[in-house]
Specification:
The structure holds five protein chains of five kinds.
Chain A: H1 2-28, H2 33-57, E1 66-74, E2 79-85, H3 90-106, H4 115-134, H5 138-147, H6 149-159, H7 164-197, H8 204-207, H9 214-231, H10 240-247, H11 250-275, H12 277-282, H13 284-303, H14 308-329, H15 332-363, H16 374-377, H17 379-393, H18 399-420, H19 425-452, H20 472-490, H21 493-511
Antiparallel strand pairs in A: 1-2
Chain B: H1 3-24, H2 28-53, H3 56-87
Helix pairs in contact in B: 1-2, 2-3
Chain D: H1 4-22, H2 27-49, E1 54-57, E2 61-63, H3 65-85, H4 92-110, H5 114-134, H6 140-170, H7 176-181, H8 187-204, H9 212-219, H10 222-244, H11 252-271, H12 278-295, H13 304-325, E3 328-329, H14 332-336, H15 344-347, H16 349-363, H17 369-383, H18 387-413, E4 422-423, H19 427-445, H20 447-452
Antiparallel strand pairs in D: 1-2, 3-4
The chains are: A mainly alpha, B mainly alpha, C mainly alpha, D mainly alpha, E mainly alpha.
């Protein structure tokens, strides 16, 4: 029965390893760039390996938390150190762990100053992200949620581009605004639960039991949703993202797009909607509209960007719209699609940002117009570029397809009965969302066209000093991501099975009304 | 209009006058004196109540106020001296280097 | 062999991976070119061989469909998405065509692409295309079909832009992909509706459900589904309004045009419609639309083809036109006939394209027919094969095209499932134009006097055996392909529509009419282009506005540019980016930020350093607080 | 016994005065003071742990375990202040004055009568006037001290006026009269209550009574500013807790406690944005924090001491942390300027990191202790039903994030040269910094444990 | 007597010369002492005169004479906050007055207890308020140290 004792330890280890890494870097490598890199890479790799073990041992047929640890922490407030894996977070945990070593390796040569601090920040960020995913206690979750801000603030602000300070402040201030209101909602939620049930607890499982009148649910959901929607980001709360992406160093963009944005959708899935199901259902039309607007809006803007990072940034907005759409469909297939789309976007956007970073390291320009014909110049690079472009477009056999396909299918599956009942909005929205598929192809292929094809041109390239194609390190990073892209595109079943129970429980949580009987609703 | 009310209003007026003095007078020493006036106003009401109640507590507080007021002046005067040393002026409006 | 079907599809994939990884990596060494060519061709040929085996298996099983599950892609709730292959009469025909024509075109390409610096890459893409095309035709589930559907789009994109150093080629590829995507969006919607109704995407299940009219089928209207799927088909099969990509797709190497943009990929829409005939049989409105779109496409594309001067463009519009014929057949319920035309078209159009390729090859890249002429004697093999194929497409009796086209015309006229005389009229007129522009092409290219420059003329040479051999094979099939009675072969699976009884006796009359039309086209072309050059010029001058309209392709590209592309860019750039993102959203945020800054400045100025003020604040505060406290009295 | 902590402080004072009179090395003065403070804090903790409760002077002075804990905590916070004073204050006076101020501090939460509380307030503040001047490094220090003195004097007078009216209305000098009078509808009683509260607002620098704080903080030296911003403020808040003593905020006070703290939060956080002086910025920050602290009085009386004390500790520890590691510079104006922080990370990563942690905690961002403290306060506010104001307060706290981040931006993201006279913080100050860091970490990691002892 | 106290207090604010202000303050204080005497709290009256007038004000007057700083002519007596200040002042007096007059506290109208004697006061001070006595001494010690420290600083600043 060693597994039962080992399990929780393993998850704790996965969570805390980055902190060990931080300690190691601070102790051993304060002035040793190479060692700092090595430590970070090693820690991340071990973490990924352990996360893989978790994934393999995760029992898809068991409901409830697995590998859970619960320790009383702030007993006075009913806060406990409660972490665990369930279908909601298992894939995201693996994704986070997977991107960890990739981020470190990707930044291997491009980060040249303050290297140890950089890796400390990346490790801290990794810890916070992992924590936010595995936390099963609202207080703990909020802690991790906010803790992500600081390292990201520094990563963008210290190693970013020319307007990095503006961008990073915008990022933090934007995000913090949402968080502040969420904090108010958290306090109110827990407080009202205590008043109604006498129990002071932050555990998700307990909070899922709370009964709140619709009006209260609405306000609380509004606060949560604001915070999550900023993180996702959903139009019109997105303007921080392009700036943050553009100014962030490659590693920052990778983390941002790869994991951080998923926090928003994860938050909706794990907290926002299940905590306030009645409000969630009441506001589905609005949120769904916003999701679809995000899809189209992001795509349209990606279409006219001249900065290559901005294209991907806006594409992220578009892609995460599908996630929201899937989640809001409340259809199993849509929810599952949303989860896959989260992971897929994590991988694909990470790949694209890495690719952009690699070319930026060589040419120091992000202007699309300054490039051309890279396919002739850097064939291997171009192959990878094409793969990730197509995955972003959602071409079948890539992960992007799995996510988009299932999410859209969910939206449609939900919309059709509504249409038969005379409510055409979901159907219209789902149909409009499908146009995102076209727009997606338009902006990504515009990117690829200018970038890869035509006459060869690139800053800092001359026939005497041609640009070098990808190094072995770069190839392996992208190779790993490519494998993930196709694995999730061709064989999503394994992953889907792990999340199926969670998707079902999400579905039943959100579709079950939880307003107190006989209450007309009192505004707080 | 009896005695107590009058005394209390007088006390309040002295207190307010003291504060007004701090607001309107520019001479640092005058300001200090106005502070004393405020305390005197307070003392009056304390004594009045103490007497009215036949209770020593108020009077004792008055005594403490004496002590404190004295100590404050003793501390304030050197500070004013120091101020004057730098600007050769008692005008408090000239001491507004710290602002913003 | 348990996984024959999977193997058929996967063999080209292996070829792709091999060529992709090794041939590209090893560079453009001559020996490698050889290896790449052999590998690239071997896998399709092997696939073809396996297909024949599979066909024999099918036959041995009395043509009962073979279902071959590979693995489960996803299980969500109770609905399972299986990756499974399905082999019946329809897929058998398609697979044979794809692997067969595909193989020969691979062989042809070894000659055609000889010396190209990206030889290996070319074969990799070609193999990739075959893989996806085979998924498309072999898939049991619409999901697999869709994978192939989009996959062939990808391969087409890559191959059109194969010579990407010239940006116009790459742009043509992009155009193809995006136009196809528009269709795919419709396809997706249709698929979603079907999933909603049945919880599965297996096409056999869906078809039979529709045919039997079970409960689930009533949930979604067949017409809507049919139309949505047809939107997909218009994209892939270049029908109005989404045909615009196909002419541009000629930017790709000619074997690509032959294989993808003539013989196989563009017929995927036809295949899809035939495959989902269960739906369309229940959806007369949708079928009506298909027939009309088909015939209109056929007609308009043919008119454009009349005046094109690029050898490949003529063939491209001809392809669009022929695809229109196929959809006409589908629209009137003659699914088997459409497939029949797919097959014959594959033969003669592949032959034509490859012949054109041979011409271009011989002329060192020249594609303008005004600068050709008199090639008959210089490259006779090419000429003869080209001529046979031209005759076939023109509907000269006895050749392949004659049979299939005639059946289409007949069903357009007489089918009880939507046939109408006016459909026949349009189609017959189109047939006339087809004969005319094809013979025009033949005459301008091969007959008459040479209009080539001396230098070009000097270098003209017949193509190597790898190319001419293939041409001869395809010419043979173009000639004899009509004798394969595909509609009847398929009838067991997809019945042909009944004929309106009152019209039955017109059959022979119409047959003669179409024979007459074919020869009329031939005659007209010979009359116009066999004589002095002033003759066509005169007609051109007489009908200048029409000529301009036709040679401008009805200015549809320009229209789309003005109505869709430009407004979209304007909307994105001006309204969304500048108006909404920068001005409204960022503007209000920056406004708030500067408001905070200004307030901060104000508060800083309030802190004047004056002790008087501070004391005043205290006093005001006290007064205010005391007054406020009375509020509760 | 009950006054053991006070006695120990007094003992320390006496020893120091004797040493001073004898002219025996001011070097050791610091250690004596340190010994006294540590002993005093230890005594308070020990008594608290022993659940000691007594009122040796009936109606004047009493201790309970909770109050002893509060005293111990604040006294412990004085340790870093003493440690960081070394570089600026070589004389023994600093230690004596600090000990006497601490003595006053200790009186406040224990006072049962207004007389003791008044003496406590004066004893707390009076030495600070001198302290502000003591490290006389620039002429403005005198201005600074004078402003503090005058407004603090006005606060004392206001306090007394209120006490006097309350005394008149109730006939009692007992502090509990305040709590009892809260609900009274009598105008004079009400005026009394309001005046007393406003006096505390003035001492704690709540808008509109805040104006002295920025000027005073800027003109004072770092250890004294640190002391004022943290311990003095904390002591005033503890006095307020003592005053309210178990009474829920009712009547007119609710409005005052809702509005003025909120205005403080917003005002402080906004005004801090454009500051160029670090101490002035911290002053505005402390104005905002006074707002949060007084929000704590809206909540249920039960958890008030805990909430306020926890907040004071969390807030003070990080403030002291920032001050302790601040680089040394003989030019006080340069030292105080935010420009001095530019690029500090590259010169002194430890200091930069510590200041950054402090700023983040002050901003209330998790996982730093400032967050848990704020959480507790706002939780109580929400529990008391003032949800709207809790939200407004939180939004107000959001406004503050910017200027704290700006400091981090200067530290890490802005290039800057060291001023020629800049040095690392002294060894003892760094020790103080480490102590504060330890405190910060304990508060961050084990808030439950800390709360459990309160 | 109260009126005189008030008038001289007002004079304090009106007088230009600090010396006259001081004299006005002394008048106020003496008058207050008189009031205390009339109220029967004689020892407080005595303290008032002794400590305030005798010690504080003498000190103050001494300093005024010592400094003898001539303000520049034309230098306004008042800060620019005169009008708002007076307004606020009037409001404050009004508010306090209304608070007192409208109060229902019986202490305001009660006949008043018999004044307590110095003996009673001393007894209370040394028994019930023993702690305050002690604390006052601590306070005074601290005050002395503080004053000395400030003087030391001034000397240092001077030298």
């Amino acid at each position: 029965m060693s597994e039962f004792t080992m399990g929780p330890m393993l998850l704790n280890l996965v969570l805390w390893l980055p902190i060990v890494g931080v300690a190691l870097v601070l102790l051993l490598a304060r002035a040793n760039d190479g060692l700092a890199r090595t430590i970070a890479a090693a820690v991340m790799t071990v973490q990924f390996a352990l996360a893989t073990v978790l994934y393999l041992q995760f029992d898809a047929t068991a409901a409830g938390l697995q590998f859970a640890t619960q320790l009383p922490w702030i007993a006075q407030w009913g806060v406990s150190y409660l972490i665990g894996l369930d279908g909601f977070n298992i894939l995201l945990v693996v994704l986070t762990a997977f991107l960890g070593p990739i981020v470190v390796l990707g930044a291997w040569t491009s980060i040249k100053k303050d290297v140890p601090l950089f890796h400390v920040m990346v490790l801290v960020l990794q810890f916070a992200m992992m924590g936010a995913f595995v936390a099963q206690d609202l207080f703990l979750f909020y802690l991790f949620w906010e803790a992500m801000l600081i390292p990201m603030f520094l990563i963008i602000g210290m190693w970013g581009g020319a307007r990095r300070v503006y961008a990073t402040l915008k990022f933090v201030l934007y995000t913090a605004f949402g968080s502040i209101l969420m904090l108010a909602a958290v306090i109110y939620l827990v407080q009202s639960m205590q008043q109604s049930s006498g129990v002071m607890s932050f555990a998700f499982a307990d909070l899922y039991q709370t009964q709140l009148p619709l009006s209260v649910q609405t306000i609380l959901l509004g606060a949560f949703a604001l915070s999550f929607a900023i993180k996702v980001p959903m139009v019109p709360l997105h303007t921080w993202l392009p700036d943050a992406h553009v100014e962030a160093p490659t590693a920052g963009s990778v983390i941002l797009a790869g994991v951080l944005l998923k926090m928003g959708t994860y938050g909706f899935m794990k907290l926002g909607f299940p905590l306030f199901p009645d409000a969630a259902r009441a506001f589905t039309p609005l949120l769904m509209t916003l999701a679809v607007i995000s899809i189209v809006y992001g795509a349209c803007l990606a279409l006219v960007q001249t900065d290559i990072k901005k294209i991907i940034a806006y594409s992220s907005i578009s892609h995460l719209g599908y996630v929201m759409l899937g989640l809001l469909s409340l259809e199993l297939v849509g929810i599952q699609g949303a989860i896959i789309q989260m992971v897929s976007h994590g991988i694909v956007a990470a790949g694209l940002f890495l690719l952009v970073g690699m070319i930026y390291d060589r040419c120091h320009s992000r202007e699309l117009a300054e490039y051309g014909g890279l396919a002739r110049l850097l064939p291997v690079y171009s192959v990878f570029f094409m793969i990730f472009t197509l995955a972003s477009v959602g071409l079948p056999t890539t992960s992007g397809f799995t996510g988009e396909f299932l999410a859209l299918m969910g939206a449609f599956t939900a919309a059709w009965p509504a249409h038969l009942d005379g409510n055409n909005l979901p159907l219209v929205l789902a149909s409009v969302a499908v146009t995102g598929v076209v727009l997606g192809a338009m902006y990504m292929l515009r990117f690829a066209l200018t970038f890869l094809f035509g006459a060869v041109k690139a800053p800092h390239h001359s026939p005497d000093h041609p640009l070098l194609d990808l190094s072995l390190r770069e190839k392996s990073i992208l190779g790993l991501l490519t494998i993930a892209v196709f694995a999730l595109g061709l064989f999503p079943d394994g992953a889907l099975q792990k999340t199926e129970l969670a998707a079902k429980s999400y579905q039943s949580l959100v579709t079950t009304s939880r307003t107190p009987a006989g209450s007309a609703g009192v505004t707080p | 209009m009896d005695k107590v009310h009058l005394l209390l209003v007088l006390s309040g007026a002295l207190f307010a006058l003291g504060l007004l003095g701090v607001i309107v007078r520019r001479n640092a020493l005058v300001m200090l004196m106005c502070m004393e006036l405020m305390l005197n106003g307070v003392n009056l009401s304390l004594v009045t109540f103490s007497q009215q109640r036949g209770d020593a507590a108020g009077a004792i507080l008055v005594l403490l106020v004496f002590v404190v007021a004295t100590a404050e002046i003793a501390l304030a005067i050197p500070i004013v001296l120091l101020l004057v040393r730098f600007k050769r002026s008692m005008d408090i409006d000239r001491y507004a280097d710290l602002k913003g | 062999m348990p996984h024959t079907l999977a193997l058929i599809a996967l063999l080209p994939l292996v070829g792709f991976l091999f060529n992709g990884f090794f041939a590209t990596a090893l560079g453009r060494h001559r020996a490698n070119e050889r290896a790449a060519g052999i590998i690239g061709s071997a896998f399709p040929i092997a696939a073809f061989a396996l297909t024949i085996k599979a066909f024999l298996d099918l036959q041995a099983g009395g043509f009962a469909p073979i279902v071959e599950p590979l693995y489960r892609w996803a299980l969500i709730g109770t609905s399972s998405f299986e990756i499974a292959f399905y082999f019946d009469r329809l897929s058998a025909i398609m697979t044979l065509v794809v692997t067969g024509v595909g193989s020969v075109i691979h062989i042809y390409s070894t000659g055609y692409m000889h010396g190209d610096k990206s030889f290996g890459r070319f074969f990799a893409y070609l193999n990739l295309f075959l893989f996806f095309m085979l998924l498309l035709v072999l898939g049991r589930s619409m999901l697999v079909l869709f994978v192939g559907w989009e996959g062939v789009g990808l391969a087409s994109y890559l191959l059109i832009g194969f010579w990407f150093d010239d940006l116009t080629n790459a742009k043509a590829g992009r155009k193809a992909f995006i136009t196809n995507r528009i269709g795919d969006a419709g396809f997706l919607l249709g698929m979603f509706l079907l999933y909603r109704a049945f919880g599965t995407l297996d096409m056999d299940t869906i078809n039979s459900a529709f045919l039997s009219g079970t409960g689930a089928a009533l949930l979604v209207p067949a017409s809507l589904v049919g139309l949505l799927l047809f939107v997909g088909a218009t994209g892939k099969s270049a029908q109005i309004p989404l045909y615009v990509w196909l002419p541009d797709a000629m930017a790709g190497p000619t074997p690509v045009s032959a294989l993808i943009h003539a013989a196989t990929m563009v017929t995927a829409g036809v295949y899809l419609t035939a495959r989902m005939s269960g739906i369309y049989m229940m959806a007369p409105e949708a079928s009506q639309v298909i027939a009309i779109v088909g015939v209109l496409t056929a007609f308009f594309a043919a008119t454009v083809a009349l005046v094109q001067t690029d050898i490949k463009k003529v063939l491209a519009y001809s392809t669009v036109s022929q695809l229109g014929f196929m959809f006409l057949a589908l629209g009137v319920g003659a699914y088997g006939v459409a497939i029949f035309h797919v097959v014959t078209h594959a033969f003669f159009k592949a032959c034509l394209f490859l012949g054109a390729g041979s011409v271009i090859h011989a002329l060192g890249g020249e594609q303008d027919i005004r600068k050709m002429g008199g090639l008959r004697s210089k490259i006779p093999l090419t000429f003869w094969t080209f001529a046979i194929a031209t005759a076939a497409i023109a509907g000269i009796p006895g050749l392949a095209g004659f049979f299939s086209k005639d059946e289409i015309l007949w069903y357009a006229f007489a089918s009880a499932k939507g046939g109408a005389p006016w459909l026949w009229g349009m189609a017959a007129l189109t047939a006339l134009m087809t004969a005319f522009y094809m013979f025009r092409l033949l005459w301008l290219t091969f007959m008459g006097a040479s209009r080539m420059s001396h230098e070009v003329e000097h270098h003209v040479h017949e193509s190597p055996i790898s190319m001419t051999g293939v041409l001869m094979l395809l010419a043979l099939l173009s000639a004899g392909g009509g004798y394969i009675a595909i509609p009847h072969f398929l009838e067991a699976q997809i019945p042909l529509p009944p004929i309106v009884e009152s019209l039955e006796h017109y059959e022979h009359t119409l047959l003669y009419v179409s024979i007459v039309l074919a020869f009329a086209g031939l005659g007209l072309a010979v009359f116009m282009f066999g004589g002095p050059a002033s003759r066509p010029e005169g007609i051109k001058q007489a009908m200048l506005p029409i000529h301009r309209l036709l040679s401008g392709k009805y200015f549809v590209d320009e229209l789309y540019e003005r109505v869709i592309v430009k407004p979209l860019a304007w909307f994105s750039e001006v309204v969304l980016l500048r108006g909404s993102d920068k001005m409204l959203l960022d503007g209000s945020l920056n406004g708030l930020a500067s408001l905070a800054q200004r307030t901060a400045g104000l508060l800083g100025r309030a802190q004047t350093g004056s002790l008087h003020l501070y004391a005043l604040l205290v006093m005001v505060g006290i007064v205010g607080a005391l007054l406020w406290s009375w509020r509760h009295v | 016994m009950a006054m053991l902590p006070e006695h120990l402080l007094l003992g320390g004072m006496v020893v120091l005065i004797v040493m001073e009179v004898l002219g025996r090395g001011s070097r050791s003065a610091l250690w004596v003071a340190l010994g006294a403070v540590v002993a005093s804090a230890a005594a308070a903790f020990w008594l608290s742990n022993a659940q000691y409760a007594a009122s040796p002077f009936a109606g004047q002075f009493s201790v309970t375990p909770a109050i002893l804990m509060a005293k111990g905590a604040l006294l412990a916070l004085a340790v870093p202040v003493l440690l960081m004073s070394r570089t600026e204050f070589s004389d023994g006076e600093f230690s004596i004055l600090l000990l006497s101020s601490l003595y006053g501090l200790c009186l406040l939460p224990s006072s049962d009568s207004f007389l003791v509380m008044f003496l406590g307030l004066e004893l707390l503040a009076m030495p600070v006037y001198a302290l502000v001047l003591l490290a006389f490094r620039r002429p403005q220090s005198a201005e600074s001290a004078f402003k503090y003195l005058v407004l603090s004097g006005a606060a004392s007078a206001t306090f007394l006026m209120g006490v006097s009216l309350l005394y008149g209305a109730t006939g009692s000098m007992n502090v509990d009269a305040f709590g009892a009078a809260l609900a009274s509808g009598d105008l004079m009683t009400r005026a009394a209550v309001v005046l007393v509260l406003l006096a505390l607002f003035l001492k704690a620098a709540v808008v509109p009574f805040h104006a002295w704080a920025p000027d005073t903080y800027e003109g004072a030296s770092i250890p004294v500013t640190a002391y004022m911003a943290t311990l003095t403020k904390g002591a005033v808040l503890l006095a307020a807790v003592r005053l309210f003593n178990g009474a829920n905020a009712t009547g007119p006070l609710v409005d005052l406690l809702l509005v003025l703290p909120l205005v403080s939060i917003v005002w402080g956080n906004l005004a801090a944005i454009k500051q160029q002086s670090f101490r002035r910025m911290i002053a505005y920050s402390s104005i905002a924090h006074a707002g949060y602290l007084f929000y704590g009085f809206l909540g249920d009386a039960q958890g008030r001491l805990q909430a306020v004390l926890f907040y004071v500790i969390a807030y003070s520890v990080v403030n002291l942390l920032a001050f302790a590691v601040m680089p040394q510079n003989d030019n006080d104006e340069q030292r105080d300027s935010l420009d001095a922080l530019k690029g500090l990370y590259h010169r002194n990563p430890f200091a930069a990191a510590m200041i950054a942690i402090a700023m983040l905690s002050l901003a209330g961002l998790p996982p730093f202790p400032g967050f848990a403290a704020k959480f507790l306060i706002f939780k109580n506010v929400v529990a008391a039903g003032y949800t709207t104001y809790a939200v407004l307060g939180l939004v107000g706290s959001y406004l503050g994030i910017y200027f704290y981040l700006r400091v981090i931006q200067l530290l890490f993201m802005t290039a800057g040269e060291a001023a020629p006279t800049e040095q690392r913080a002294g060894g003892l100050a760094r020790t103080a910094g480490v102590l504060c860091l330890v405190g910060t970490l304990v508060l961050a990691v084990l808030p439950g444990w800390v709360l459990g002892r309160m | 007597m109260g009126a005189i106290a008030l008038v001289s207090a007002v004079l304090m604010l009106v007088m230009r010369e600090p010396m006259r202000v001081a004299l006005a303050l002394i008048t106020t204080m003496v008058m207050l002492g008189g009031i205390y005497g009339l109220l029967g709290v004689h020892f407080i009256a005595a303290f008032q005169v002794l400590i305030y007038v005798g010690a504080v004000m003498v000190f103050m007057v001494y300093v005024i004479m010592l400094l003898e700083v001539r303000e520049a002519p034309g230098n306004a007596r008042y800060s620019r906050w005169l009008v708002p200040g007076v307004t606020a002042f009037a409001a404050l007096v009004g508010v306090l007055g209304i608070s007192v007059y409208r109060s229902s506290a019986e202490v305001l109208t009660a006949p008043g207890a018999s004044a307590f004697s110095l003996t009673q006061f001393s007894a209370a001070f040394l028994s019930e308020y023993w702690l305050e006595f002690e604390l006052t001494s601590v306070f005074l010690v601290a005050a002395i140290v503080a004053a000395l420290a400030v003087i030391k600083v001034s000397r240092r600043a001077h030298g």
